[in-house]
Amino acid sequence: NDLYAVIGHPISHSKSPRIHSLFAQQTGEPVEYTAIQAPLDDFAGTVRQFFERGGKGLNVTVPFKEQAWQLADQRTGRAEKAGAANTLYYDNDRLVADNTDGCGIVRDLVDNHGVTLKDARILLLGAGGAVRGVIGPLLAEQPAELVIANRTVTKAEALVDLFSDDAGNTRLSACGFGEPDQPFDLIINGTSASLQGDLPALSPKVIGAQTVVYDMMYSLKTTTFNQWALDQGATRVFDGLGMLVEQAAESFRVWRGVRPETASVVEELRTD
Ligand code: ATR
């Protein structure tokens, strides 16, 4: 079997080994996929060792995605702009870094949930690494408007500057959480506020009856952010489990040239 792994710190709760073994079963690809906890001070050495032992590909998760991007000899276009990588592999003796996170959220929204991104008005919450990774792929869908709101407004403004050349006809802007006061077609929570039991301080006016709400986090029960949205009258709320499975499917496709079917895998994980 060809060896793959997810590398992070901590790593024991990662769902990636389960997801990729379901993909391997389903496609019949000879893939073995494990989890590696790299020491915080030796990500590069752990990666080197994995490939020296014949490993074929790595997924990279918190807190090493920026280091993976740095370490690579070569980056795909979508990784370059994301400033972080979640997928590594060798091509002609060169370590290649890719980023499938943005592709993952777009596929989950469009293919799995039937959300129209073209001409949509999107509110994107947060300005950290997770948000930076999805801006390019969201802009590629040509929304009418993409508003990046963050607690620290200067960080949202920096992202707007970084992506202004990719915006095309999309109105791209930055603001604080309190500013938007009209309903959006889609609100994506890319903050880690819920890890501290917090909510971004949004006006309830951003939620309309038609607003789709997407939390990049996922959990067994409704996420804090999605519960807030439901309480404001939203009816279509999704968590990030579909994104997790879709980014994995895209990595699998990059490595194996075969795209696994994802719906049954999401279903399986929900009932695990
Ligand atoms: P990640 O890799 O998950 O994106 P990050 O780069 O540390 O992590 O970014 C975390 C994001 O969540 C940031 O947008 C952060 O806001 P600031 O830029 O103002 O720090 C946001 N965030 C974290 N805790 C938050 C909280 N309690 N309330 C609101 N936003 C929060």
Describe this entry's structure for a reader.
The chain has helices at 16-27, 43-52, 65-71, 77-82, 101-112, 129-140, 153-163, 224-231, 241-256, 263-270; strands at 2-8, 31-37, 57-60, 74-75, 87-91, 94-98, 121-125, 145-149, 171-175, 186-189, 212-215, 236-238. It starts with a strand and ends with a helix. It has 2 domains: 2-99 and 242-270, Rossmann fold; 102-239, NAD(P)-binding Rossmann-like Domain (Rossmann fold), CATH 3.40.50.720. Strands 2-1-3-5-6-4 form a 6-stranded mixed beta sheet, sandwiched between helices. The chain has a 6-stranded parallel beta sheet with strand order 9-8-7-10-11-12, sandwiched between helices. The longest helix is centred in the last third of the chain and has 16 residues, at 241-256. It is an alpha/beta fold and 272 residues long. Helix 1 (16-27) packs across helix 9, helix 5 packs across helix 6 and helix 5 crosses helix 9 (241-256). The radius of gyration is 18 Å and the shape is globular. Residues 126-131, 150-152, 155, 191-193, 196, 198, 200 line the site of 2'-monophosphoadenosine-5'-diphosphate (ATR).
